Prior knowledge:
- The chain has about 290 residues and is α/β, with parallel strands linked by helices.
- The protein is about 35% helix and about 25% strand.
- It is built from ten helices and twelve strands.
- Strands 1, 2, 3, 4 and 5 form a five-stranded mixed β-sheet that branches. The chain has a three-stranded parallel β-sheet with strand order 6-7-8.
- It is globular and about 70 Å long.
- The N and C termini lie far apart (about 50 Å).
Amino acid sequence: MHHSSRRTVGGALLSLVLAGGTALAAHAAEPDTWALVGTEVFDARTAGVVPDRTVLIRGDRIAAVGPVDEVSVPENARIVDAAGRLVVPGFIDVHHHLSAVLADSVTAGGGGIVHLDMAPDSIRAYRERWAAEYLPYGVTTVRDAGSPDEYDALRRAWMRPAPDYPDFFPCGGALVTRDSTRTTYQSHTAVADPAGAARRVERYHDEGFRFVKLYWRLQEPEYVAAYEKARALGMIPFTHVDFNVTSISWALDLGVRQFAHAYTLIKDVLDPEEQYRILQDRGMTY
């Protein structure tokens, strides 16, 4: 099989670091050609692992993946003995919150950060710490599932691909309908009406976001308006439906195909008394 993908290259490099290999990490900044010889490769199409493969990398592209005796290694290639190593595609975190991941990760000795600073040097420092939490474990792509709009400068900066960081796909704030009886959660964005919901989706689209999150506190008129605007703009809406306000069945009928929490399935198939009884039987609180 043959592949051409920058992120797959990232996954290959990271898998060797995970297994204790250091040769690639030491020379990652050098150009030319790499050959990972004798490695096992995870094939995501078959969910199987194939042994004795050579992975040939030219620049930032995987040029070939195949049996050791079939892939020709150029004379100028940097050869890595990858026997005993496993090469996998880069892993993807599809549910990430900036306000949670970076909450206490930057200050020396810990301590909560209520509001991240949006100065350029701070944005770079946050990204370094963020990458250190993901790359050593083979995660090369991260999708945010709702972050404060006050972090907009950070979101836009992180969207620009860079080889030393995971690819980042923000979605803006999770959309909710404005409610004067409650304080809007930090990672949510409140909209007043269907027109406001559509405008907010359009703003995120114009900033380059590919995803938009529809939260369960988004009432039906605003939900439909946001969903329809997202689809019209070629964006991918995903949702957190819960508390019997918006059901999974309703969202599926509308056309939504991505759901943020498996827990919400319980709400759609069991009534509250059944949920409570099952959790009690397992010694869990509701």
